[in-house]
Amino acid sequence: xxxxxxxxxxxxxxxxxxxxxxxxxxxxxxxxxxxxxxxxxxxxxxxxxxxxxxxxxxxxxxxxxxxxxxxxxxxxxxxxxxxxxxxxxxxxxxxxxxxxxxxxxxxxxxxxxxxxxxxxxxxxxxxxxxxxxxxxxxxxxxxxxxxxxxxxxxxxxxxxxxxxxxxxxxxxxxxxxxxxxxxxxxxxxxxxxxxxxxxxxxxxxxxxxxxxxxxxxxxxxxxxxxxxxxxxxxxxxxxxxxxxxxxxxxxxxxxxxxxxxxxxxxxxxxxxxxxxxxxxxxxxxxxxx
Length: 289
Known about the structure:
Layout: H1 2-18, H2 29-41, H3 46-56, H4 61-64, H5 67-70, H6 77-82, H7 114-126, H8 132-149, E1 167-170, E2 173-176, H9 177-187, H10 193-200, H11 205-212, H12 216-230, E3 237-238, H13 240-269
Parallel strand pairs: 1-3
Antiparallel strand pairs: 1-2
Helix pairs in contact: 2-8, 2-9, 2-10, 2-13, 3-13, 7-8, 8-13
């Protein structure tokens, strides 16, 4: 109980200090990550929910989804020197795949990109020898990074810091391409994260199976391919036509991230869930149309 109280107090303190800092480098913004967590929560199997109880400490996936960004204000060396590399991967226009170094994903301080970060978290959660604190750290980071991996500019170009250096105007207000996709297009819907998640969630088993027939490497390649197209701006004045064209892409990426996060967690924590086929554990004696 004391550990849980200290953990929550630290998170509250860091959240308060985060409000005073720039959020330009954060992916999806708070609502985007919460939407991903909310969707995933509804697709967890009963066994997975039970296994997550001691790791969540009374919170939901939506609640912990922003932790990895909030902790970046922590003065600890890891958060100030190492953690930022976990959130993105640099790509070139010629890149056709992503790979990770197993050596770099064995220790959190040596993780060099988001793909290695996801593999570190997955391996930690699977390892029966991992401490409860290590698993809590990894769960919180994994929930966040699955969301990050679906934001196109987290597999963008190094030279413009994933669109952060590309200035645009959103209905006359100055911003940048990265922030536009982090939060502006989501906030423009004027929905709470629970409403947004409810509106875009799906129980279409065929669509779910398509989403889950993939890997973290493929998620990042999808983002990279999207970013490559999104860099081709016809104008830096963003308004209704851009929103009409690209909001469906935002919704699809958030939906995919939520379903894939659930599928990944079910694969880790529920031996009876079908890996990379269904996020939901479906009854074997039921015929579905």
